[in-house]
Amino acid sequence: MAHRLNIWPRALLGFKMPIAVFDEHLDAEIESRQAVMHLVLEIASNSAS
User: Is the pTM above the cut of 0.70?
Assistant: First the structure.
């Protein structure tokens, strides 16, 4: 049972992924989206001025 606590449900991800790996993946995803948004906003403000 303890082993199962470290695994996200198969239905959620489609395969087993340890929570730590999932968290790292999520952090990277969030950072890349923030970087893209930052670029978009910077380009928008540059073209507006």
Answer: no
